[in-house]
Each structure stands twice: as structure tokens, then as C-alpha cells.
Design a protein that fits this description.
The protein is α/β, with parallel strands linked by helices. Helices cover 29% and strands 15% of the residues. The chain is built from six helices and six strands; from the N terminus they run E-H-E-H-H-E-H-E-H-E-E-H.
Amino acid sequence: MILPKIFMKHNKLNRNEVNSDWTLFLDRDGVINKKIDHDYVRSINRFEFLDGVLQSIAELSKVFGRVFVVTNQRGIGRGLFTIEDLKAIHKNMINEVEASGGKIDHVFFCPHLADDPICDCRKPKPGMAHQALKLYPEIQFDKAVMIGDSMSDIQFGNALGMHTVHITKADESQASEITSSLFKWTSNFLNIEFSQD
């Protein structure tokens, strides 16, 4: 199915519509931390938060009832790092977020390769959202925001009826909104100015 192209000015999320009933879904690489060109974040010392992310998550945690990370990690399927390595990275990530006043309620990840026949969780497939619903049955996808930097993130969110935010340099997208970073979207959504430092 080809989805219509929607521009940011047509469907900006209204802060007044969002309360603790809402859930925030975040992609990881390129949204929370810097991507590594032609490689993967294989260990804690290769994980680097993007500018303003810790402050952004702290502010968004005051608004959204739940904050989840949903991330494809096929490096595991390729044998480049282990699930234990990934859990250590995520434990450190969550600790840093909490130390800055934010929260991440759960990290969902897909370890499979794109052509794995048993996989139902690699975005844009909805498996990680279904995992979230099983653990947190109070969440509603029509009261959820998905923020990602790839089309698979946007397709994942759109298929579930979420409000989608595409971090991209492009001028158009299938997402509800376009932005340049999580920090920029947070500033605009909350109508506040705060430091990236």
C-alpha cells in the first residue's frame, strides 16, 4: 500500500491534545544516539547520545505516560555482537536518561536479519508494538507518537495508526511531521527553548 505524502504543516501534533494517556515510541540509532557509518554500535564505548537528546527525553517524560524504544538490531543476527552486549548498552543508556531526569520504560529490539522467515518484529513489521501492548495493555496506538529516522520507522507507526515524526533532511515524507532532530521536535512540540548542552 502506498501512503500519501503528508507535510509537517498539515498535521502538527497539538501539545494540548497529549496527556499521560499517550505513549512515545522512539527509534534508537539516529534518534537517540549517533549512527556509525557502515557499522553498528557494538559496545557501550561506541554509544554516543545526540545533542539535546537527554534533555528532550527528560521533558517528554513529563508529558507522555510511557516512553519506549523500538530498535532493529540485525548486527546480532549477523554475529557482530550479542544480546548481552546489547542489554549492557541499553542499561547504560537508561541509566544516563534517568540521571538526566527522564525515563525509558522498556526497550524492545529485533535481533533478526531482514530475510529471517520467522521474524515478525523487524520494523516495519508490528511485532515490537504487539510486545509493548502485551506488557502494557493500557497503551493505545491512536494515542501514540513514533519518532524515527528511517522509512521503516514511519511505516511501522503509520500502519498502527500512530502520529509519526520523521527525522530527515528531506522536504517531504509519509510521516505526519518532518523535523531535523529529536531536540528540535521537542522544542517545537512543547513550545520551549532549552539548551542542547
